[in-house]
Amino acid sequence: MAFRESFRDRAVVIRTYDFGEADRIVVLLTRNNGLVRSVAKGVRRAKSRFGSRLQPFVDVDVQLYPGRNLATITQADTVRYYGSGIIDDFDKYAAGCAILESAERLSYADSDNDPFLFDEVTASFEELQRVDYATVIVDKFILRATDHAGWGLSLFDCAQCQRQGPHRAFHPAVGGAVCNNCRPQGSADVHEETLHLMWLLQHDHMAAAEAMATATFAAQAHRLTSAHLQWHVEQGIKSLKIMEQA
């Protein structure tokens, strides 16, 4: 990190792991400073001042002091807790973990001073608390975040020749929907309403997306969106694989 002075930012916890006897490494997605690897010293002791705040599904206001390899968390205050309605529902919990893991992978393409990714994560947590199909929120996050990163999907016109849709084939390597003339080997046959659902999610038309999100369309959209993300990242997203097995 390029920081030399302590700084304050909003953040969500991506993941944590124990370090030493009482410390904990905390990977944060901050609103204005991208991905920050930090250490919370003494946080595992019973008298820790802010240990319970540094957990997933919490929007925290953190004070950090930069170090050579790790920043040190010196203060953490809860802004909003999103865990209610998520952590006690396996499907929603798995979806929330998939959003966090995807955000970590996508954050490397997200520049500092760009709050988009943080805002999308917290908005996704809020929506997870009330939706029927948790996969729809994961897909919305992935579709919008990858579009913001510069490799979004074409979901109406053919991604290869731009022939006007709707089309009934999809391939992640090509960039989304493909017409019959352009479809490469291995393309998935897809209902045009599934691509319509994905387009609505990509453009944040949640009311319309929820209205048409049947179990069949939601499941197919999730398979295609997951294939799109995992085509572009170097390694698979473990949380998405867990969702597929549930």
Explained architecture:
The protein has 246 residues and is of the alpha+beta class. The protein folds into 2 domains: 7-81, OB fold (Dihydrolipoamide Acetyltransferase, E2P) (Beta Barrel), CATH 2.40.50; 90-245, Up-down Bundle (de novo design (two linked rop proteins)). 37% of the residues lie in helices and 22% in strands. The protein contains 7 helices and 8 strands; from the N terminus they run βββββαααβββαααα. The protein has helices at 90-106, 116-128, 134-149, 192-202, 206-212, 215-232, 238-245, and strands at residues 7-19, 23-30, 35-40, 58-65, 71-81, 169-171, 176-178, 188-189. The strands form 2 sheets. A 5-stranded mixed barrel has the order 1-2-3-5-4. Strands 7-6-8 form a 3-stranded antiparallel beta sheet, with no helix packed on it. β2 and β3 form a beta hairpin. α1 packs parallel to α3 (134-149) and α4 (192-202) crosses α6 (215-232). It is elongated and about 65 Å long. The two termini are 38 Å apart. The mean pLDDT is 89.
